[in-house]
Target: Catechol 1,2-dioxygenase
Amino acid sequence: MTEQLTEQTATAAASGNSATERFLEKGVGADSSTERVDMLASELVGAVHDIIRRHKVTYAEYDALKAWLIQVGLDGEWPLFLDVWIEHVVEEVANESREGTAGSIEGPYYVPDSPKLPAEATLPMRDDEPGTPLLFQGQVTSTTGQPLAGAHVEMWHADDYGYYSQYAPGLPEWNLRGTVVADDQGHFTIRTIQPAPYQIPHDGACGKLISAAGWHAWRPAHLHLKVSAAGHQLITSQLYFAGGDYVDNDIAQAVKPDLVLHPTPAGSGNGNEVTYNFVLDPA
Ligand code: MBD
Ligand code: FE
Model:
């Protein structure tokens, strides 16, 4: 008898490999000049040399590093490693001159082309989806205050156990993923469940680093979003929950004060509700 695969038997390697495929396709467009590649690669390698000299890194440590880097690849964890420890600074630099709503990292588990839903919608979920209901509503406007009719609010997030559909077995394909199309005033209302704090996969190479360094593997509970409208810059962001565990101690360092929600008990008596508005810069 074969054991039934469920989200809770997911391995880091299984979720890493599906992310790896997508990022291989995405990584072809940088077009950097020879001079720029020379500068960036030389400075990166030089920074490593400097660390080795300053800390008198031993051969045993060099061999451990080599084995670990090989293992990151074998485990399919390059997307995880890069998005947890590096992406937040790339996001900071990319969006430093934008005026609208703050961005945050995309992370490894975005899937494009999620089902399109009307302005008032419930994200696809199982009949018995566990967790606290969340009503998330707001308006999309431009930095000049114009409502952005038909803006797209793409949301994806983990379930109550911390698993993302398409990156763990046993979940419906588009569970807790959807593209909500705002109404002619840019308004949207999304019903979902409140995600729980989340441990990044830690049974692979990233987990080995985390335990060897005495770190923790947690991210605060978060909603992922991409908000877009014609003629405006797309925002990739995340939203967090005030008072939640790890909001002040995110392993991915992707929390910003403006991105922390303050939900209140829902008027319906079932779960929580919160309003958050998005402001998009012109393209
Ligand atoms: C996640 O869900 C995530 O958002 C990031 C940035 C890294 C790992 C898992
Ligand atoms: Fe996430």
User: Anything to note?
Assistant: The pocket of fe (iii) ion (ligand 2) is lined by residues 107, 109, 222, 224 (CB under 6 Å). The CA atoms of residues 125 and 137 lie 18 Å apart. Residues 9-283 form a domain with the Protocatechuate 3,4-Dioxygenase, subunit A fold (CATH 2.60.130.10).
